[in-house]
Sequence to fold (438 residues):
Amino acid sequence: MAIDVFSALKPQDILFLGEAALRTLEISVTAIAIGSFFGVIFGWGMAAGNRLITFIINAILDIFRSVPLIIQLILFDSFISILGYPAPAFVSGTIVLSIYTAALVANVARGGIEAVPIGLRKASRSLGLTYWQDMFYVVWPVGLRAVFPSWVGVALSVVKDSALVSVIGYVELLKASQILITRTQDTFLILTIAGLFYFALSYPISKISEKIEKRWHE
Amino acid sequence: MDYVFLWRPVIEALPQLLLAALVTIEVAVISMAIGMVFAFILFFGRTSKSWILRFTSNVWIEVARNTPALFQLFFFKFGLGAIGIIIDSYITVVMALAFNTAGYMAETFRGGFKAVPDSQLNSARSLGMTFPQAQCYVVIPQVLRAVWHPMTNQFIWVMLLTSLGMLVGLRELSGETQFLNSRTFRTFEFFAVTALIYYCIAKLMLLLFRILGWRLFRGG
Fold:
């Protein structure tokens, strides 16, 4: 079987893929923002709370790390339909992805807080800083440096995992490419374009993050 | 809420689900094993003298790490299908997951090999071991210890990724659930039980790896 040199792919199809790529970005950026916000709060709860609180937060978040994302999406989608509030795919996708992100970021944030030497924090408190001043001016900048690369890693994995939101009907990049493949039968080319998009997004960010990490550790 | 939960179909199908869970574990173990072998090859390929080996290894690692696993699976399934290579779903999933694992683990091994000082290899060589002997008996065991924790995480991750099989028609745990769901339409009940099974498998695997790690590396 020969591959056609002239594809049935039209210019507006490329536009269609481009729009889908934007939807991939939209859902991942939203989920990363919401998920990181709550993740940092959970991470702080685990680092600052007593053993019981830490155990409870960790046990709950662990569920989201031990069940495939695809199952979480289907489960949540059918659950809100049962409750009688069916939501658009973007909304349920964003909620599930955000919780998943929060579960991953919580561990990163906890690591960041615990990476700050206790002596440093005692010193800042004894200089008269309040607990929250210590948190914002000492723990945040020092901890962020320690775990920034891990956070970038989590963010990039969320971009890649957003491809799974297609199972509940959100037409993101990979779903859009499947739709085009069904019509044009130009499988190889379309899949390559989709792959290149993910690569073009993920590769530079991971390299830049590596560079930043190296510079910070010098 | 006027929805009536019906758990009977799920309970009746439980043996089927548990059998499918075995397929999930099987696919995960096979993919992980093949992926680990390729990860070693990629790690050595990356530092090879031949530029073609270096280039291939680098491309493999970067593509595996920078594109979605689902994309990789579709590529093996539909991309190869389009040029006339049609492979069974089971093998496609194993290939895609092994490809993915190899890329991630090659990067992990880089850290692991860095953790073993050069003097270890040199001493082993000066004791009369050949290069492969020194690697197998001295260096690699220490690398394995260094990467045991990330390797455990990777394995759990691969196990969870086998759920993508349902999108290419593989009847592992998720695929089987989807199949049963399409006949009974008890979506929530079925997937809730499946989620629970996944959780149990993940915890069981974690425990097994802990015990194995403790048995292999204790005293170290």
